[in-house]
Design a protein that fits this description.
Strand content: under 5%
Radius of gyration: 29 Å
Number of helices: 38
Number of strands: 0
Shape: globular
Length: 661
């Protein structure tokens, strides 16, 4: 080739290469300078980005964020980015819902060919019967694999494969219980498999079936702990079996972590069994805060402060501190209560427990004549803790509290605030940012081993994910347990944990019931959260049904006619009846928040039988004297929920801060 054309060709290639490099770098620079697209981005901004952005990746993100509200997925499966796989899966699901099964199958096949190792490819394998064994192997904890395992009928060739898969990877999955029980009844399981099956059944609360599954063989440490714990929750005979099983575990393997937890369970009662205390191996008893706390209780409270100082970071110490301080408060032993409350260093307790500690420290200082110290404790509580029961009581003590208007409807409800997930998996975080919460949950389950313990930060992530996929029963329980066991290192974590525990569920039904019956909607949210964690299908041991946990007789009285269980499980009906009943209680008790809320739990007749609060009595002490522990806790917790819903922020903390103000 002559030199001229060669030079021209080289120049053309160089120019094209430079243009491509500049384009790619320019797009990257634009992406970095523009705010990330999130569920907070307005619909108009999303649509403008989808139509006009020069960055194709940004256009795809906008399309995915709008996927639930419009047909924006067409043509978004290009390239090798993992989001292309997500776009293909969403498009396949949409075609399936429309009845276009052939088009859906084509998209699933494209997904498997181009992205065979992505977590979203599990959904494609679920739709291809010949690939289900491959699905169980490649993505064992993915929801698609767990659903497949539940559907696997036992056969002579594969036995109870589905049950064994669920025992290892997804014992909580709906339908797992029946599969596990069936496998235990078969002859085929090995002893190792029976250990796994028994553990899974016990984790589901089926203590007796788990024990039967072992067929009289000794249980491993983790299995014994799980089975013993489940048996403790059963009837009298089961509780005896559970105690013996846990005690045997401590004696057989005193050095295991499972034995430490077994001791904690055995020492849980306020007055532990002295015989059990004596039977714990000395080496295990010596290192156990639960054991030391039990001995203090059996010794009329003597030695409590020594235990608190030795184990300041143990939750058994935290419980001991409150139990003993509460006894002293009720007996008006102000100095002893103050000494107990001051025995744990500042910053030791999780925020809800520290708020309780600060309030009662203020009261003990006030009672012992040190009003300056009392105000200092209450000021610190108000300045460093979220809105809640104890902060409200501190504000009342200082004359700064706003009046609670529980009998007034409101046209506004708290607005949920979107926040990044901050998991350890970039894929999960990206899906969360794009509003694809179901896909984020699938990826979270698929990427982690369910038997690996979760760090506190990851428990926060999982709780938020559960709420996002409409599992408030377990999500709120997980977040509550975390809140009373974790001392967050930053203000941002504290704020996120507090906000996550106050979801606004059944917004339209709550607002309608508030308007119709004249009740503060945040009070309805507070009670629904405490009664059922917003779960329509929950039924209590006493027979209460649904979101507001109404007894059928109470619901019939309010409605003026009998109602079926199906009707009571309808959230809008249940919430409306609950609001009407609550309104009658507020009228009965002349808008008194304490008596009205206690009556919702224990019944107005029961509450009327208790000594009523006197003008010269501290209402906080009256609450602590409620004879039913459940109602005592319930009254404080509903008020705590109510105030948490009323205000998401507080002066000492915002979502930009790392430490406390």
């Amino acid at each position: 080739m002559p030199a001229g054309p060669r030079n021209f060709f080289a120049l053309l290639l160089t120019t094209a290469g430079l243009s491509l490099t500049i384009t790619v770098m320019g797009q990257r620079l634009l992406r970095e300078r523009q705010p990330a697209l999130t569920p907070k981005t307005t619909p108009i901004q999303l649509w403008q980005t989808y139509r006009w952005s020069v960055d194709p990746l940004r256009r795809r993100e906008a399309a995915l964020l709008m996927a639930k509200s419009g047909p924006t997925l067409a043509g978004q499966g290009w390239g090798d980015d993992p989001l292309a796989a997500v776009a293909l899966a969403l498009a396949a699901e949409r075609e399936k819902r429309r009845g276009n099964h052939t088009a859906a199958d084509v998209l699933w096949q494209q997904l498997l060919i181009r992205f065979p190792e992505t977590t979203v490819s599990a959904r494609a394998r679920q739709h291809v019967p010949g690939l289900r064994q491959e699905l169980l192997k490649l993505h064992p904890s993915h929801p698609a694999a767990l659903a497949t395992a539940v559907a696997l009928e036992p056969t002579p060739e594969r036995g109870h494969q589905g049950a064994h898969h669920l025992a290892r990877w997804g014992w909580r999955w709906p339908g797992a219980m029946d599969r596990l029980k069936a496998a235990c009844s078969a002859r085929e399981p090995t002893q190792a498999q029976r250990q796994s099956l028994a553990w899974a059944l016990a984790m589901l609360g089926a203590g007796s079936p788990a024990l039967d599954c072992l067929q009289g063989k000794a249980a491993g440490a983790e299995t014994a702990l799980a089975v013993g714990r489940a048996l403790l929750r059963g009837g009298e005979e089961q509780r005896i079996q559970g105690k013996l099983m846990l005690l045997e575990l401590t004696q057989r393997q005193p050095k295991s972590l499972a034995s430490d937890e077994a001791v904690r369970l055995l020492m849980e009662p306020l007055l532990p069994d002295p015989a059990l205390v004596e039977a714990i191996p000395p080496a295990l008893a010596e290192r156990s805060a639960a054991m030391a706390a039990a001995q203090v209780r059996l010794n009329a409270g003597n030695g409590a402060i020594n235990v608190l100082k030795r184990w300041p970071d143990d939750r058994d110490s935290w419980q001991l501190q409150w139990d003993e301080a509460r006894f002293a408060l009720l007996d008006e032993q102000w100095e002893r209560a103050r000494d107990l409350l001051m025995a744990l260093p500042a910053g030791t307790l999780p925020p809800p427990l520290e708020a309780r500690q600060l309030f009662w420290l203020g009261l003990t200082e006030e009672r012992t004549g040190n009003s300056t110290a009392a105000k200092r404790h209450w000021r610190r509580l108000i300045g460093t803790h979220r809105p809640g029961y104890y902060r409200w009581r501190a504000e009342v003590r200082l004359g700064e509290a706003k009046t609670l208007h529980l009998n007034k409807p409101s046209t506004t409800l708290p607005v949920p605030v979107w926040a990044p997930l901050n998991s350890r998996y970039p894929e999960v975080d990206t899906l969360w940012r794009l509003g694809l919460t179901e896909q984020a949950w699938d990826a979270w389950l698929s990427l982690r081993d369910p038997r690996d313990p979760l760090a506190a930060e990851e428990q926060l992530v999982e709780g938020r994910l559960r709420l996002s996929v409409n599992d408030p029963w377990r999500g709120l329980d997980q977040l509550w347990r975390l809140s009373v066991r974790w001392v967050p290192t930053s203000c941002r974590q504290r704020l996120l944990l507090q906000r996550s525990q106050n979801p606004v569920v059944f917004q339209q039904a709550i607002q309608s019931a508030s308007t119709q019956h004249g009740v503060d909607p945040t009070l309805l949210l507070a009670i629904a959260k405490q009664e059922s964690r917003f779960s329509p299908g929950v039924r209590s041991i006493a027979g209460a049904v649904g979101v507001m946990q109404l007894m059928p007789e109470t619901a019939a009285s309010v409605a003026g006619k009998p109602l079926s269980e199906h009707e009571l499980m309808e959230p809008s009906t249940n919430i409306s009846l609950g609001a009407a009943y609550l309104r009658s209680l507020l009228q009965l008790w002349e808008e008194d928040a304490f008596l009205s809320i206690a009556s919702y739990n224990a019944g107005p007749g029961t509450v009327r039988s208790w000594p009523q609060p006197r003008n010269d009595e501290d209402i906080e002490l009256w609450v602590e004297r409620i004879p039913y522990a459940e109602t005592r806790y319930y009254t404080k917790k509903v008020l705590d929920n109510l105030l948490g819903y009323s205000d998401h922020a507080w002066p000492g903390c915002d979502d930009r801060a790392e430490g406390m103000g």
